[in-house]
Amino acid sequence: MDWPTNLQMLTAGLAMGSIYALVALGFVLIFNAVGVVNFAQGEFVMVPAFVAVWLMDMLKIPFGLIYLITVIFMGIFGIVFQRVAYYPLRNRTFLPVIISTIGVSIFLRNGAQVVFGAEPLLMHRPTPPNVLKITGVFVDPQYIVIIVCTLALLAFQYFFFEKTSLGKKMQATAQDKEMARLLGIRVATMIAITFAYSSILGAAAGILIGPIFYVTKEMGGLLGLKAFCSSIVGGFGSVPGAVLGGIFLGIVEVFAAYYISSAYRDAFAFIMLILVLLFRPQGFFGEKIAQKA
Amino acid sequence: MNPRTAKSLLVAVIALAVLVFPWIVNSSYWLNLVNLAISFSIACLGLNIVLGYAGQLSLAQAAFWGVGAYTSALVATRLGVSAWPGMIAAFAVAGLFGVLLGIPTLKLTGHYLAMTTIGFGVILQLILINAIWLTNGSDGITKIPSPRIGSIELKDPSSFFYLAAITLILLTWASIRLKGSRIGRAFLAIQGNEMAAETVGIDTTYYKVVAFALSAAYAGFGGALFAHSGSHYISPDTFSFDQSVLLLVMAVLGGNGSAVGAVVGAVLLTLLPEVLRFLKDSYMMFYAAGIILIMIFMPGGIAGLIQLLPVSQRLRVWWNQGSATTQQVAAALAAGKPARGSLPAAVVNGPGANGTLLTLKGLAKYFGGLKAVDGVDIEVRRGEIQALIGPNGSGKTTILNMLSGLYVPTGGAILLEGTTITGRKPHVIAAHGVSRTFQNIRLFGELTVLDNVLIGQHGRSKAGVTSSVLQPSSQQAEEAAMRGKALEMLEFVGLRGKEFARANSLPYGQQRLLELARALASDPKLLLLDEPAAGLNAAETETLVELLLQIRDQGITILLVEHDMSLVMNVSDHIIVLNFGKKIAEGSAEAIEKNQEVIDAYLGTEVGNA
Asked: Least crowded by CB within 10 Å, which of A122, B253, B382, B517?
């Protein structure tokens, strides 16, 4: 066994997995709140990446400020998205909503091309470009940033949902809208905030991944689909499931690409998905839910 | 003009239009575009079967389209045979892929199929690019031969158009016929209410796989047409996820559930880019905005809009007046029988048969730590009405759900006529002769009253996909017999004259009666009724009592869950009382009324004072 290589891949897998986890969380929070799978979730990563790159070119201000502006922008973006793609269709079946989110996804991809051009853009790195050498293992410092930031976000999220009144109201809305409404919770506002937060998670993913990959209009497509796989592998609807499913797929993907086939790198997430659906449809953390007669 | 002449005329007009079309258009560019539109149309017809009929969202239609295109192209170029075997193989191979992908996925509901199909599309595209030995990789396959008829090669777009148009018309016709038949009704029932479909005897997983496979096969054939026409060249990037989305939008724009609508949607969206060329780069943005607006403002698509026009409704009635269904219903109405008929005789056991029909031994159901049903023994005698009563949460509905297979018991056994049916699937239990109604009515709301009762007979009829499309005389006879029985059932419950009303549009009490008629239509041995009187007024309850007694007198055993005590006491031969998941008493109505434990737990002083 070649330990340095394996450790190197483990770091890369953890970093990619963290990104999947962030996007998968976005999926799951929206799904839990309104029962809709948002097929534009990948574009929630692409848009902030473009916005951040554009701001970096336009304004000569510290990166920290640019990240902050991007996050605020995406929060507003999430609310507008919810208003356009979900709200008018909230009383219909899941199909029109899914198609409308697909419509938004196509709109955003091509909109990005019209606004920012077709050339792939490069986002400046907040970290030094040289790889670090830690006890014989080469590590891109950006990977470390990704992993640390994701952990911090998860800790914040845990605190937010479990300890704050707003977080608890959002949880209550996700569990039972009618009951929440009867208790005086503004359900529509909670849903809008959920979309905003889900979109901010995408902003975090976009800012973190931007310096590693080129920023293109296509960058969100496969990322969103793989994140969706993660949430199913972890157990659809489960928050810890989305996180662990994401990290699991990230690691599997890196190792399978190295040991099995790099040409089929993008297939492994979906192969894992089909295997999970065959042998454990409820995912790692999901519960079997019986429909009520 | 009567509808029969109109139909012949329509066929003639379509044939003439197809014949002269290439002469009128007379441009290779536009004819190639139309051929492409036809290829898309066929894929959309398939999508319409799985999505519009069966209600399952597939996002891999372009992948199946690609499977068909590659299969046909490879057979023709590698094996050196003519184009025809490849086109047939395309149909079969794509269908096979549909079965293989459908079996693991379609047991699950909702978004899983959408996701798996996307995954399939991604994997397929990777294979097309990387399996160079087979597919020639990103370079694609060139010089795909045209099909030949005798010595004529269908090489120019106008002669290929004839082939494409004829197959399109045949496949449209087939999918329209499918919709109005036993198989199509099963699909629509799954879309309408999957749980109810299972309990009336439809093997929902099987039919979803059938719908998915048919859809894939249609797409495969469409793909084959694509490969052998136009540029005679295919490459992996054509069969992308975006293309699947485009096909989905075409089908939905046309009108979910309408075959003709799917074709119209496909043709419109294939030609639309030509019209929107002037928008250049931002074309796709307008297109996407259009999709969102369609979803918001045109839920039924183009077909839905047209169906709303009064003219089209009148046209529909006129068009259908010659159909076997309309004539049969009209004849039944003209027969002028009393408003409410009697239940058709010849039910499974016949009155007088006795002995035990159903035995529950130590039946238990736990939800986590909650013991909803905790070791209940019940015997139901043939030809009796038994009632299950008890306070809310005592486990009555849970028992019915286990009996009809919706819940798998945690422990214990269910025996029907000595056969163990514990934990079997609902449609298997339905096939054993158990039929039920629901506390919250579960009809197929968008379908007609008549269709609801026809679906109730699903398990007692046979027609498969082929005979549903070809409709030989055996299939027509079966349909006529089913309709006859359905009409009798509707007459029995007093819904005569409502045959063509939408189930949703009936008043609440009539919906309950319709659900009862649907349950009876399967010739059950055992009828499970979950609070049939809930929400009924006094007169309706009285009618229900009469119906229940008549049903019992025909030899059908009834197990009833009900809170209306006067109804329970009136009709029940035997009453079982549950409390906290356990049986606390059983006996005749008189005995139960006097039982102190029952009074304490459930009946309370109201009955005690009476």
From this structure: A122
